[in-house]
Structure formats: structure tokens, C-alpha cells
């Protein structure tokens, strides 16, 4: 255990673990307690007073543990915020709610202990859950309680007024009345003090009145219950203290590992709580609270409040900073009681309807709404992944909401204490968001330009994939591409794999990926996020030219392989035919070893040199007779040139591919601003000037009787022919401008 304690990053937790080991030793030394002392029940009033402001040292805490074991403390019950409440400690967060449901069933069905589920047949219980409840909660309760899924009633959230993540109280009352008319029994309502998604709080006060009216058990859970430890608590969260039960998770709130969750409940019948499993006489069950109790005693009231207050301050700091950032929308900014911040990227293009809006316009077509919704989700998902890598201490999570779509959530109460999040991390997070916004906006603006460029390029097909956050997706259509087929295309996959390799070798700022098409199995090239200086036309042209080169080279190699195979077969046939002709021409006697030699000595045979050469370019067998006659190897047909791009862009030194040329180069120095293209233009202009001067100097008008440049050129040519190569006289070279 000592070795494992050294691995704990927090020295405070390491020290607590060591002291916990000593406490366990004390418990083992006192195992000889009498049976009467073991039978005493430990009421809530036996706890030795409230938490100290600044916490206690471990010696005092261990003394309190010993006093509790022997029952030496005799303190009066202290006033508590949650009056007349009992506590149930459990490892699984949902286990406490399942026990509460059992308690509610036993309270409403008196014969349930004897008759079991037969009493539920005539009057089925109903458990009400909010539509914003955490996923899988209803299924878990049904599995634990053995109830069918129709016993669950999903209560919709507000659609007209208030937060869209709060339970609709009016609709809940209507559901309760309908269930009563059908002969069902409204059993339990689960309310949220901080929904699992966005941290919004239901109208718990109004829900409590409704539950008292119809005799329904009210259970509250959520992250906002942590704010009950603060001096300032919103009225909606404060109303949770009047509920029948609540579940608290202090482990993530305070950054304490391996501490149990707590379910507080109010009930006067110890027998029913024992049957429901909320109380136990086993010492092991009672010791579940020991790690949490030791941690709280060590932190004290000030330490506990400071951690919760720090988390709330982080959320307020981030929310106030995000309000000043363009294109970032915070969901329900007036939800001041929630320490959870949920935001998303929002962009509105000029001259069009709001793009990527949370609530689509009513006049928009369903296909348009779905495409923009998926596009927005892809961009926000990309933004979330980038922020999680850049600022890991923020603890951001990516979630998909039913109405808004993909959003980013910052819940410091669940992550700040564990990750050690500070205020500087919030400033860094906002700075990273601002640095990524130009990339998001430029990518949106270049998408339409990329789509038009692909549509105007032969051989390329634009693939509409709204789930891709980059510029777009493109597919090259080769000659044998079946456009109506959705199956895997091996030839196209080979071309796109080579295209991806060529594009990555260019070392541009763009990212390229290969993958199947959105609605088929054909390969495509996915192009990532872009900046404002991306040259889309050059990008599209490079993709088209490179893909065409790969296809033609591959086709040339395949054709050459087939031609060589056929040429070898034809050569074998012709060689066999030549051997047969030679046998007929020379006769059978010349094939006998001794006789053939004698005949060849008396009557030699003039051998006819016949051979074959294989022309790879023409793909045919040719005779070598011309080679033996002319003593020169034939060149054959000139091979075709390798296809190349029609556009060659001159780049400045250090300029990466697919970038627009830099402007404002006049302000630079003359030696650094003049490019290679400008040098060529100057040389061409200088050459033209020299040529013009030479023509003017040799014109007949200025030199009457002198030969023209053409005549001089012809005369010089004849003189060179007449003189021959052995002429040792110096030759004057003709100017370049006169050639």
C-alpha cells in the first residue's frame, strides 16, 4: 500500500491515505467490542458536530473515530439544512435512486412484501423522467426494479417559454391526470438540479407542490446541488432541500477519488427502509462512509466551500469572456444558477439566411436544414477536438443535443478539482477559440468556391458530405468508372491512394485524407480546413492533373505488360517456324552429326541471318534484317510524352503550394523582391532591344548597297559549306537576335 501511495499525485491525498491505514489498524484493534455496543444504532445526532472551518489534523480526526466506535460522544443534534434526513452511501451513482424507488413502492403498496409484483398488475406504477435526464437512467431503473418499460413516462421539456431543457410542468400535470384516469399509480418524479447535458435546473418549487397534490415522491439529482454549500444559492436550487430525496456526488465536485455517492432521504418507518435496502446492520456497509467522512474532516468547511466556489468562478469567467467573442453563441445566457457553460460556433454569411443556426428557419427545405445542421455539427466537433488538445486542463466535452446539435460543454464542478483547472486556463481557452475562428470562417467561405471549381473541371466530381468539416470532398472519375454503381472500385481506390501520396508529398498546409464516399463505397479525397490565402483553383487543378497522370501511367504500364506477353508468345511461334524452314532448306542429312559435317565441307550452306527485335513503343515484332544491312539500330516510333500539368505557378522562396501570391512586394528590397519570372521578362526585353538595334544598323536605307541580314546569313552559310571543316580561319558567330 505504501508503494501505491507514492504514485498519488496529490500529496494531500497521499497523507490522507496513510492516516486512513492507521485508522483501519485502530478499527482492527478494537474488534472486541461487546454485543450490546454493536447493537446500538448510530443516529445522525451522534456525529461530533459540524465541519470545522479550517479542517482538522489527522490526530484529532482519529480521536473522533475512536470516540464514535466507543460511543463516548454525547452531543446534541445539530441543525441541518436537509432536516430529518437519513443518508445512504453507495458506489454506483444510480444505485441510490433505485433504492428510493423500492422504498416508494413499499410505501404505496402495503401487500408488496407478501404478494410481490402481483399487486402491481391491477394498478401499475408510473415513474416520471424528464426528457433531459441522463441517458440510460430509465432503462437502469426498470432493470433493477423488474418493471416493464411502459412504467416509465417521459416528460417533454419546454417548447414555448423558459429553457428548452427544463421540464414542462403543465404537460406533466396533464400526464399525471391521464395516468390516474387509466387506473395507474403515479409513483415517483425525478427532477434535475442541473441537467446532465447543459446544467439547467427544473422548477423544483412548482414540482414539489404538484407532487404533494398527487402524493408523488420527489427525487432531485444534478451537479447544481453542490452550490447548496455556498452562501448564495438560487431559489430554484434551494427548493431542492424540501424534496423527499436527493443524490449527491461529492467525489468529482471536490476532486476526491474513491469516495462514495450519497443519497439523502426522509422517511419515518425504519422497517421499510430496511426492506428497501437503504439501511443495513452489517459493519462493512456502515464503513462505506469512512473515506468521505475522513476527507471532509480533513478539508473542513472552508476547503470544501473554496473548491466549489472556485469551480463556479471559472464558469462565470469563461461565460463573460465568451460573450465578447464573435461567432460564439452561449446557450441560455440568463441561466445564472448553473455553473455549466455550453457554447457553439455560429456563422452568418452576408446576403443569405443565417447559416448553421440552432433553430432552422420555417421556410427552409428539410434537405437544406439537415445539410446545414450536419455541417454545423462537423465544424463544432472539429473545434472541440482542437480545444481539447490545446487546453487539456479545461476538461471540455463534446455533446450532441437534440435541438441545438453538437455543442461544447465546460462543467468545472465535474472536472476542475481533478484536472487542477485555473483561471489562466480559461484565458488560454478563449485565446485558442479566437485563433481557430478565422480557420472556421475561411473554410465556410471557400466551400462554395471549391464546389464551383470542381464542377468546372473535367474528370472531377464534387461529393457532398456534410459530416466533413473541411473545404470539401472530391472524387476522380477514371475512364472505367461506373457512375451508377455504389460498390467498391479497385481501380479508383488505387488511383486515389496514389493521388493522396502525391498530395502529401507537396508539404502544403492543407490536410488530405482518403476514405469512402458519404453514400457509397467508392474512394474519395477529403480536404481539411483552410486559411484565407488558399488558392482553390490551383488546388483543384493540381488534383485533376495529378490524378490524370496516375491513371495514364497505370494504364500505360498495364498495356505494356500485355503487349510484352503477347510479343513473347509471337516470338516463340516465329522462332519455331524459322527452325522448321531451316530444316526443310538444309535437308535431313545435314542434321546427322558426321554426315552433316562432310556435306557442309563439300557444299557449304550460306546462312541467312534472320532475327527478331521487339519494339516496346509499337508493341510489335520487327525483323533485324535492316539492322544487319545498315549496321544501325533502328529507333522506331517516338514514345509519347509523359502528361504534365498545363499550369505552372511561379512561387516565391519559402512559399508553400496552394497559397496565393503575396502582394505589396514593391516595398521590399530590389534584390529580395525580384522573382525568377521577372528576371526572365527583363532578359527577354533586353534581347528584343538588341535585335531591334541590329536590324536598324544593318538596314539597306542606312547602308546603300549593303546586303540585307537574310542575304548575309545565306551568304555566310554558303561560305561555311564551301570552306569546310578544315578551314582554319576564325569564324564570326552570328548574333542570337539574327537567328
Automatic annotation (TrEMBL):
Pfam families: PDXDC1-like_cen, PDXDC1-like_cen2, Pyridoxal_deC
Domain PDXDC1-like third span(s) in chain numbering: 450-555
Cofactor(s) in the UniProt record: pyridoxal 5'-phosphate
One term of GO molecular function: pyridoxal phosphate binding
InterPro entries per UniProt: GrpII_AminoAcid_Decarb, PDXDC1-like_2nd, PDXDC1-like_3rd, PyrdxlP-dep_de-COase, PyrdxlP-dep_Trfase, PyrdxlP-dep_Trfase_major
Start and end residues of each PDXDC1/PDXD2 second domain: 338-444
Compositional bias annotation for Basic and acidic residues: 676-685, 726-739
GO BP annotation list: carboxylic acid metabolic process
Chain residue ranges for the region called Disordered: 631-739
Domain of life: Eukaryota
Family according to the record: Belongs to the group II decarboxylase family.
Protein name: Pyridoxal-dependent decarboxylase domain-containing protein 1
Species for this entry: Phyllostomus discolor
Amino acid at each position: 500500500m505504501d508503494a501505491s501511495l507514492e504514485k498519488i499525485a496529490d500529496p494531500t491525498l497521499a497523507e490522507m491515505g496513510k492516516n486512513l491505514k492507521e485508522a483501519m489498524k485502530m478499527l482492527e484493534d478494537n474488534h472486541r467490542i461487546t454485543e450490546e455496543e454493536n447493537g446500538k444504532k448510530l443516529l445522525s445526532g451522534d456525529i461530533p458536530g459540524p465541519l470545522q472551518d479550517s479542517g482538522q489534523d489527522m490526530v484529532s480526526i482519529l480521536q473522533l473515530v475512536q470516540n464514535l466506535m466507543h460511543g463516548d460522544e454525547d452531543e446534541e443534534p445539530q441543525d441541518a439544512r436537509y432536516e430529518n434526513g437519513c443518508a445512504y452511501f453507495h458506489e454506483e451513482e444510480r444505485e441510490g435512486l433505485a433504492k428510493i424507488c423500492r422504498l416508494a413502492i413499499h410505501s404505496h403498496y402495503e401487500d408488496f412484501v407478501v404478494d410481490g409484483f402481483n399487486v402491481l398488475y391491477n394498478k401499475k406504477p408510473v415513474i416520471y423522467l424528464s426528457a433531459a435526464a441522463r441517458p440510460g437512467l430509465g432503462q437502469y431503473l426498470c432493470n433493477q426494479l423488474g418493471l416493464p418499460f411502459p412504467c416509465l413516462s417521459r416528460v417533454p421539456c419546454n417548447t414555448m417559454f423558459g429553457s428548452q431543457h427544463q421540464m414542462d410542468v403543465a404537460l406533466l400535470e396533464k400526464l399525471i391526470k391521464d395516468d390516474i384516469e387509466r387506473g395507474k399509480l403515479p409513483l415517483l418524479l425525478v427532477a434535475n438540479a442541473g441537467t446532465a447535458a447543459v446544467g439547467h435546473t427544473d422548477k423544483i418549487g412548482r414540482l414539489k407542490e404538484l407532487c404533494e397534490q398527487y402524493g408523488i415522491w420527489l427525487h432531485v439529482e444534478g451537479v447544481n446541488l453542490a452550490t447548496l454549500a455556498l452562501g448564495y444559492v438560487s431559489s430554484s436550487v434551494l427548493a431542492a432541500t424540501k424534496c423527499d430525496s436527493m443524490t449527491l456526488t461529492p467525489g468529482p465536485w471536490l476532486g476526491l477519488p474513491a469516495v462514495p455517492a450519497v443519497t439523502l432521504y426522509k422517511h419515518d418507518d425504519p422497517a421499510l427502509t430496511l426492506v428497501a435496502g437503504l439501511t443495513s446492520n452489517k459493519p462493512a456497509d456502515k464503513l462505506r462512509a469512512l473515506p468521505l467522512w475522513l476527507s471532509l474532516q480533513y478539508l473542513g468547511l472552508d476547503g470544501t466551500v473554496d473548491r466549489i466556489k472556485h469551480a463556479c468562478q471559472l464558469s462565470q469567467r469563461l461565460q463573460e469572456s465568451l460573450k465578447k467573442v464573435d461567432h460564439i453563441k452561449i446557450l441560455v445566457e440568463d441561466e445564472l444558477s448553473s455553473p455549466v457553460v455550453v457554447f457553439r460556433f455560429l456563422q452568418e454569411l452576408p446576403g443569405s439566411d443565417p447559416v448553421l443556426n440552432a433553430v432552422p428557419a420555417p421556410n427552409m427545405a428539410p434537405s437544406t436544414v439537415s445539410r446545414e445542421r450536419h455541417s454545423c455539427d462537423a465544424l463544432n466537433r472539429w473545434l472541440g477536438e482542437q480545444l481539447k488538445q490545446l487546453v487539456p486542463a479545461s476538461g471540455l466535452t463534446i455533446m450532441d443535443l437534440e435541438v441545438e446539435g453538437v455543442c461544447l460543454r465546460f462543467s468545472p464542478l465535474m472536472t476542475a478539482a481533478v484536472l487542477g483547472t485555473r483561471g489562466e486556463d480559461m484565458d488560454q481557452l478563449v485565446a485558442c477559440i479566437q485563433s481557430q475562428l478565422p480557420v472556421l470562417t475561411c473554410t465556410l467561405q471557400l466551400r462554395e468556391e471549391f464546389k464551383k471549381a470542381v464542377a468546372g473541371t473535367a474528370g472531377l466530381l464534387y461529393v457532398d458530405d456534410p459530416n466533413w468539416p473541411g473545404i470539401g470532398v472530391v472524387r476522380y472519375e477514371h475512364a472505367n468508372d461506373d457512375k451508377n454503381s455504389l460498390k467498391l472500385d479497385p481501380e479508383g481506390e488505387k488511383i486515389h491512394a496514389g493521388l493522396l501520396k502525391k498530395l502529401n508529398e507537396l508539404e502544403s498546409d492543407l490536410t488530405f485524407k482518403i476514405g469512402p464516399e458519404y453514400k457509397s463505397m467508392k474512394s474519395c479525397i477529403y480536404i481539411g480546413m483552410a486559411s484565407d490565402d488558399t488558392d482553390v483553383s490551383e488546388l483543384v487543378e493540381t488534383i485533376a492533373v495529378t490524378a490524370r497522370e496516375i491513371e495514364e501511367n497505370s494504364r500505360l504500364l498495364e498495356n505494356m505488360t500485355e503487349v510484352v506477353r503477347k510479343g513473347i508468345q509471337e516470338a516463340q511461334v516465329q522462332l519455331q517456324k524459322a527452325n522448321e524452314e531451316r530444316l526443310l532448306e538444309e535437308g535431313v542429312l545435314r542434321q546427322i552429326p558426321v554426315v552433316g559435317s562432310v556435306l557442309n565441307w563439300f557444299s557449304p550452306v550460306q546462312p541467312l541471318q534472320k532475327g527478331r527485335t521487339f519494339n516496346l513503343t509499337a508493341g510489335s515484332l520487327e525483323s533485324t534484317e535492316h539492322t544487319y544491312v545498315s549496321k544501325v539500330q533502328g529507333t522506331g516510333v517516338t514514345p509519347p510524352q509523359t502528361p504534365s500539368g498545363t499550369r505552372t505557378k511561379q512561387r516565391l522562396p519559402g512559399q508553400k503550394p496552394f497559397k496565393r501570391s503575396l502582394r505589396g512586394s514593391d516595398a521590399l528590397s530590389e534584390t529580395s523582391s525580384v522573382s525568377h519570372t521577372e528576371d526572365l521578362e527583363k532578359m527577354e526585353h533586353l534581347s528584343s532591344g538588341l535585335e531591334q538595334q541590329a536590324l536598324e544598323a544593318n538596314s539597306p536605307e542606312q547602308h546603300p548597297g549593303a546586303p540585307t541580314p537574310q542575304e548575309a546569313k545565306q551568304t555566310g552559310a554558303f561560305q561555311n559549306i564551301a570552306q569546310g571543316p578544315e578551314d582554319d580561319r576564325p569564324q564570326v558567330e552570328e548574333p542570337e537576335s539574327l537567328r
